[in-house]
Amino acid sequence: MTEPAFFFSEVNQRQSVFHRRAFVMGGLASLGLAALGARLAELQIFENTRYTTLSASNQYNFRLVPPPRGRILDRNGVELASNRPNFRLLLLKDEAKDPEATLQAAATLIPIGPERHRELLREIADGPRFAPVAIADDLSWEEFSRINVRNPELPGLQADMNEARVYPFGGAFAHVIGYVSKVTAAELKAAGPNPDPLLLNPGFRIGKQGVEKSLDLQLRGKAGGQKVEVDSKGRVVKEDPAGDIKPIPGQEVVLTLDADVQNRALEVFGEESGAAVMMDCRSGDILCLMSAPSFDANQFVKGLTAAEYTALADYDHKPLFNKALTATYPPGSTFKTMVALAALEAGVPTSRTYYCGGAWSWGGRVWHCDKAHGTLDMKGGIAQSCDIYFYQTALAIGPNAIAGVARRFGLGGTFDIGIPGQKPGVIPDIAYKRRNFPKDPVWHPGETPSMGIGQGYVNVNALQLCVMCARLANSERALNPRLIQSIGGVAQPAGSQAPGLPFKPENLAFIREAMAAVVTSGTAAGAAQLGLGPVVMAGKTGTAQAHSYAGGHGAHGAVGAWADRDHSWFIAFAPADDPRYAMSVLVEHGGFGAAAAAPRAREIMRVALLKDPQVRSRIVKPTPLPAMPVTPPGVIPEGAAPPPPTPLPGQTA
Amino acid sequence: MTASAITRPGERDRLSVKLGQIDWRLTGVITLIAVAGGLMQYSIAGGHWQPWAAQHMLLFGAFLLLMIVLAVTDLRAWFVAAYPTYVIGLVLLGAVMVVGHSSLGAERWLKIGPLHLQPSEIMKIGLVLALARFYHGLSAKDAQWSWKLLIPLGMIVVPTVLVLKQPDLGTAILLAATGLTVMMLAGLSLRVIIAGVVAGVAAMPVFIYLVMKGHLLKGYQAQRFLTFLNPDSDPSGSGYHILQAKIALGSGGILGKGYGLGSQSQLNFLPEKQTDFIFATLAEEFGFVGCISILVLYAAAIVIALRIASISHSHFGRLSAAGVTATFALYVLINGAMVMGLAPVVGVPMPLLSFGGTVMLTVMVAFGLVQSVRVHRYTEVSRGAGALI
Description:
The structure holds 2 protein chains of 2 kinds. Chain A contains 22 helices and 21 strands. Chain A is elongated, with a radius of gyration of 37 Å. The termini of chain A are far apart. Helices cover 67% and strands 3% of the residues of chain B. Chain B has 16 helices and 3 strands. Chain B has a 3-stranded antiparallel beta sheet, covered by helices on one side. In chain B, α12 (240-252) crosses α14. At the A-B interface, α1 and α2 of A face α9, α12, α14 and α15 of B.
């Protein structure tokens, strides 16, 4: 014992205090542990159900399964838009803490250029918080499997497969069908607070133009769900096929277009700029709605680089512009059919003659014509497309009479064909002048002759002219054009369910005869021969001023700078005696209607006619025996049935 | 062995006698907890010994031997080592601030060759030893309330502040709470204790206000604290840990989902499942029954250790054993409260259950000290031998 005895009480005091306090401490620790036990009881016994539910929802996830987008077919079932498998590489934003490093890791597997790298970083920064970003599409199988093998060492990267939109014909249908591309932030915002979850799905694309846009919801379908067991990072551990919800595929859309006709139309335009529209003039179905030059819609699905887009947007032939619907032009002489019909309806006889000396003085001005046609009646006026004849005809009946007829034929109007972008153009009358020209609200007589030859204020689009031609050819109903044949198997109303045309049948018949004369003996006599024997076209040429030129006669620009040349029109229907197809063809800055538009119309029309079994039966027939007297070629009495087939010589019956 | 045999002079110093004096009940309880930890490590690795279970069990085996070695180490050796341990710990803490190896944004490690040294762990033992040694030489009156208490207060505050600077909130709380517990056990005036508690409660709103304003705690610590106050505010961000742990606990139910079948932990929903949140895994797979069993084992370890402290004849033995027991108990309580959503996430593991060699080493050294106090309960520790005061 080294310690003095007087410390004992002191030592005992320290000891007894410690004992008390240690007891309290043990009690407090036990109390604390008991509190933990109570908390456990609360969580595990009383709130067990709630947390079990949470645990299950943690464990199982519904993975969005995008529906296949509906195909778009032509009238014969040819695929105009369909889907193909696409292997791609995704960057999972919630896993890739450092997108820069993740992209660099990805670059060791697939090529990512510096520009693309920057673009992707921007996309990653801009997109929704948890939405993965597709950093590469169209991977080859080798690339795809290489990424899959190395997946465990590549956090934040995932290779998967989806379906990509593909347009087998590339550009031929781009203006009608449009294209799909990535959802923009603005579109997402426009979708409201609860957007279709598909819109957030990486790589999901929505329709941006044409049918893809106007029928986007029908084509899109409804997303399905796949019940999968996931870990906390959303990685799929196990699949549970029993819990799947099948996606509802997008509806199939069938168009009235005919791929053969449309492809031929784009083909015959070559480098030229313009539009071609063809309608079935019994049903109103649009067989061809083509704008040239076109662009490859597949490029838009992938996404254009700035340079590619600039190249398209800056080209003076305007490939992105739908010239069949969105561009309006003066119809030129094709409008004379309307002026003539208006005159007939106003009581002007077909025998009314005017003298054309190549120039005509009226109202203090000299009005020109292409050449001196001499004395012409109305049929000659149309066939020769004499301007001087129609200056005077227009003056005789006035702008309101012409406009009334033109509007009945669909000019200056728009049609419900299911795609946006139609520009109505202008069919002027006195009221139009009053409404739109507050500084000069009076229709001057000097403005009527210009209207008589489809110039001046008159502006139409190619679809309108085709409708006009189809209504002329049909002669009974004010046919409406139809582009969408069926959506998801449900047929859309036919264009033939339309009111009748309130014109005298003989007047309409006269216009058709005159149009036939244009091809047989008139302005298009050389250019519009189909070469299909008895099946011939009827048509009307048009040459429209693209540029205000002051020179008058002879200065019609078929020469000179491309952008200064006249627009070339041709409207036609065939067969002339039993019309099936009507069309309008515009060649921008093509010069004379007969030179540029008519031959193209002829080629396009041939395709449609040769595909038509009824027309074929008239063309394809055995060579007539020399002994048998036949009607001269090209002249078949109206309504005549084709002669019965006769056996070839040498064949025994 | 008879009582007369053990009272024979020199008999207590024999190794076989010392080994017999080790509390094998306590050793058994510790081993049970560690084995449960190994089982859980095995489960969350998807039924594999790697990467956690094997190392956990091997380390425990090694540290168990260490505990026995420490248990037979003379208590006077502990007494002599008390201040040096504290000073070394303090120096290393200072060194960490200068050349610390940063891990997860906190400078806690000192890399000496292949050795990762965490000075705050040395300090956990060193502080208790130093305080026990100090109080060993202090009169009951002075321990109650006198200017001399500034010395133990300083002993607590200096390492606490250094650890807080690293920043390691969990260890800082542990150090401060352990130190204050030793002060109370040593006989701090009840009035002072009550006044301290009242002041602490009163200061809470001020503390919360300062944290919210961005003072006091570093970014993620402040975030964790605020998330604790309102865990539903950001379920996938800072509140994620708490929420997922609560889901794991709650979905365990009474009997649990079964060994190896806890979806929360098996599927990685639980963060740091092998370390700080191992208890949640246990709760998910073994349910309420499993949890209570483990808590009972912890309670048994604490009670046995405190009883050992109480039977010691030396004040140093009493205070040091009780002090490290306090550390152990605080580990369990803080981790439990954290996992159950009752306390902020501060990064304190569940001793012996969690994976991690450093903490296991600390805990086993602590139990070595407790065992040593038991083995040497009759040893007289000189009041002034080597004492500064």
